[in-house]
Write a structure and sequence with these properties.
Number of strands: 13
Bound molecules: nicotinamide-adenine-dinucleotide
CATH topology of the largest domain: Rossmann fold
Number of domains: 2
CATH class of the largest domain: Alpha Beta
Structural class: alpha/beta
Number of helices: 11
Mean pLDDT: 96
CATH superfamily of the largest domain: NAD(P)-binding Rossmann-like Domain
Length: about 350
């Protein structure tokens, strides 16, 4: 395997791996390892070129630094990309070679699933590296969606308290875009807490299920953001908050599980300007990485997971409070608080 270190200012270590025999072409990036080894999933995508792959792995690994810091787990930010088409380019040889590439980091990087990479792939990589998470036996981690749903529910409670002065969710109205693995679980928690639901999904079976089980009102995916509700919860794809949607959001809170909800960074300020409280996506949806972190530490238990997830609500409350006092957007404040966690650890070291 050919190993090409790449100097990137501000990143701890970035390395490109090329293995002719298996067809592996990957970049692993550790952004910051102050809190512990870099931890974040592997994405398998047909990037247009190496620069596009490098840009993505840099952006994603830095995001993991912040997510892990505010998730309260002793891990830094890391991420990896494999360049190729996951539908046609996967092979056991490729993932064994990828395991050797991870091993090259000597424990500075732990991987897990991301788009294009599943548990079967990771099990093969784990034949050649010890630094794989998300392949735990039953009862020691596994599918993160129910945890993410619980974290969102706790996050919505915190946001409803901060923005609407609510101490419970009885009668609170929530529009959920995307009732998939997380959105359906979130619906169940909210329904149990007495909230009124509006749901939208391109999958008709899913919305019908939400209607039957939780009495949810169904709207089209194009209308979900504009529903006359207290909370808008994007739980489908990224980019839900954009120039086309922001001005018709009627909710006072945006809090959902989707990654990269802000289509452009300026949407953070735009939400504040409209008086909408935004729960930063990487904070409210951190339960999956918390599960992975506990699995790596050998500290996973259902009780520990529940306790940690419930702290997501406390973290968000602190973000909301500081943002309110300082009149600043919540995403910006969250990033700053993540940097402070890292700086404090650096000073204490
Ligand atoms: P999922 O695929 O199970 O559910 C997504 C749902 O959104 C599906 O029902 C799908 O039909 C629907 N959808 C897709 N495109 C849509 C559109 N244009 N309009 C309306 N509905 C649409 O995924 P998930 O695991 O529930 O994750 C949802 C979001 O949360 C994703 O952005 C994911 O990255 C993020 N997230 C998930 C987890 C987790 O633990 N699963 C953790 C962190 C972040």
């Amino acid at each position: 395997m050919d190993v090409f270190p790449i100097e990137v200012e501000g990143w701890r270590r970035v390395v490109r791996f090329v293995d002719e025999a298996s067809g592996l072409h990957a970049i692993i990036a550790v952004h910051d390892d102050t809190l512990g080894p870099g931890c974040g999933g592997t994405r398998f995508r047909p990037y247009a070129d190496i620069d596009a792959a490098l840009d993505d792995v840099k952006r994603l690994s830095r995001g993991m630094t912040y997510k892990n810091a505010l998730g309260g787990i002793p891990f830094g930010g890391g991420k990896a990309v494999i360049i190729g088409d996951p539908k046609t380019d996967k092979s056991p040889e490729l993932f064994r070679a990828y395991g050797r590439a991870i091993e090259h980091f000597g424990g500075m990087y732990y991987t897990a699933e991301d788009s294009g990479v599943n548990e079967t792939d990771l099990r093969i990589a784990a034949e050649t590296t010890a630094y794989v998470a998300g392949v735990a036996d039953e009862g020691k981690g596994g599918n993160p969606s129910p945890f993410t749903a619980r974290g969102c529910w706790r996050g919505i409670e915190a946001a409803a308290n901060a923005r609407l002065g609510r101490n419970d969710l009885e009668g609170l109205s929530v529009s959920i875009l995307g009732v998939g693995a997380v959105g359906m679980g979130l619906s169940q928690h909210l329904h149990g807490a007495g909230a009124k639901l509006v749901v939208a999904d391109v999958n008709e079976t899913a919305v019908e299920e939400a209607c039957d089980r939780f009495g949810a009102e169904i709207v089209s995916p194009q209308e979900a953001h504009a529903a006359d509700v207290d909370v808008y919860a994007p739980c489908a794809l990224g980019g839900a908050i954009n120039l086309d949607t922001i001005n018709s959001i009627k909710a006072k809170v945006v809090a959902g599980a989707a990654n990269n909800q802000l289509y452009t960074p300026d949407m953070d300020q735009a939400l504040l300007d409209r008086g909408i409280l935004y729960a930063p996506d990487y904070v409210i949806n951190a339960a999956g990485v918390i599960s992975v972190g506990l699995e790596i530490l050998g500290a996973w238990s259902a009780g520990e997971m529940t306790a940690r997830i419930d702290r997501i609500g406390d973290t968000l409350s602190r973000i909301f409070e500081r943002a309110q006092i300082e009149g600043r957007p919540t995403g910006e404040v969250a990033d700053e608080m993540a940097r402070e966690v890292i700086e404090d650890a650096r000073k204490a070291a």
